[in-house]
Design brief:
Blueprint (H helix, E strand, L loop, with lengths): L7 E6 L6 H11 L11 H4 L4 H12 L6 E5 L14 E5 H4 L10 H5 L11 E6 L2 E3 L16 E5 L4 H11 L6 H17 L6 E2 L4 E4 H11 L1 H5 L15 H9 L4 E4 L5 E5 L3 H10 L3 E5 L6 H14 L9
Helix pairs in contact: 7-10
Length: about 325
């Protein structure tokens, strides 16, 4: 990187849902064995080694990160080389308030990423099922003025559609959609702007100082109220709130994504793999949904190993 390019870190969240110790902890908090549902399905926590392949994509297409932080719940991938100076495991206990622990709710965890020790001012956040598909450079994420590029999927009339589904059709919204809508509504109430665009379900750019200001000042009460949500809940607020505030304060640059830039793949749908081949986007997400089964997950692992066959420096 050029000397005037800011240092940029990459933050992942990762869980091994196949770990019996972790499963017992989750079931104890839930009060019973967790059933497969849209809010707490097995695939949400399944470990298909996506992180290994995502890191391979980092080494191939974005080797310029200063540090890579992996946020986990008392777990470490067995294949990860923790001696690598670029890698740092961050346990939930290091960043989450005591009342949030143990936490199985990504929406809560994401509001405390700014607490990661030694996190750089400019950072990217990635789930372990998101991947670089082409070479990228820092200015793909932060403009020359240092402000984040906010990637959203264009969804016109989202507020109207939300009202129609909820109040006319009487159909409930999924908890993820509710959390994103809650974020947009809070920003609308505070700043007067409702952002119809949805998170593009991939790698996003943030400024740590802005995250601190949003979480600990502007919307502190709202985020405090969801700290005890160990599982997804109706009053969750999605991390999209940081991007919406950045846009409202003109501290971010809006960029709507197309299929040529960012694709969200459902691993059980063969047609989505065909779309991936057709559009060859810069980023893609391999989403394990409540409709996927173990056969779909096995096919995913084979596909990822074919796409990223070479070990990275982050592996033992």
């Amino acid at each position: 990187m050029k000397s005037d390019t800011p240092s940029i870190d990459l933050v992942y969240m990762w869980v091994d849902g196949n770990d019996p110790k972790w499963q017992a902890k989750r079931n104890a908090v839930f009060g019973r064995k967790v059933k497969n549902s849209s809010s707490n399905f097995n695939g949400r926590y399944a470990n298909n080694d996506e992180l290994k392949y995502s890191l391979r994509s980092v080494e191939r297409y974005a080797p310029w990160f200063r540090k890579i932080f992996i946020v986990t719940d008392d777990q470490t991938p067995e294949w990860l080389d923790i001696e690598n100076p670029k890698i740092k495991i961050i346990d939930h206990k290091e960043i989450l308030p005591h009342e949030s622990l143990p936490c199985f709710n990504a929406s809560v965890i994401e509001h405390f990423l700014h607490r990661i020790p030694d996190l750089s001012e400019h950072f990217l956040f990635s789930n372990d099922d998101t991947f670089f598909n082409k070479t990228v450079i820092p200015t793909d994420f932060f403009a020359v003025d240092g402000l984040p590029i906010v990637r959203l999927s264009r969804k016109p009339f989202r507020r109207l559609r939300w009202y129609f589904r909820k109040n006319i059709l009487k159909k409930p919204h999924k908890l993820y959609s509710t959390a994103v809508f809650n974020a947009a509504e809070l920003v609308k109430h505070k700043f007067g702007n409702f952002y119809n665009g949805l998170p593009h379900h991939n790698i996003d750019s943030y400024l740590k100082s802005d995250c601190i200001r949003v979480a600990e000042q502007i919307f502190k009460n709202e985020i405090d109220s969801m700290k005890i949500n160990h599982f997804r809940s109706v009053n969750d607020t999605h991390r999209a709130i940081y991007s919406y505030v950045a846009l409202a304060e003109k501290r971010g640059h809006l960029q709507y994504v197309s299929s040529k830039e960012s694709l969200h793949i459902h691993i059980q749908k063969d047609s989505h793999f065909e779309k991936l081949k057709k559009f060859n986007p810069t980023f893609f997400c391999m989403n394990d949904t409540e409709y996927a089964d173990d056969n779909d997950r096995m096919k995913l692992k084979i596909w990822l190993n074919t796409r990223f066959p070479e070990k990275s420096e982050f592996e033992k």
